[in-house]
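Can anyone check this?
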Amino acid sequence: MVLDPFGGSGVTAIKALVLRRRVIHCDINPMANFICSQIAVSPVGIDAFRAAFDEISISCKDDINQAYFYRTKKLKV
């Protein structure tokens, strides 16, 4: 069990969920609690997240490389 009484935006809570821990997050700032609740809705499935990231990375690779090449070439001119 992880208790973060000064939770802020929820970095500790997210890490605790990634490690499959139970977590209590609280903060005096309602906006911090809102941000954390929207990010940490459920435990993070690292394998599913990685698979989705890899799929997006592969599908966007050419566009990213082209944009990077254009930007670096433009900066050198």
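Reply from J.R.: I decoded it. Residues 45-77 form one domain.
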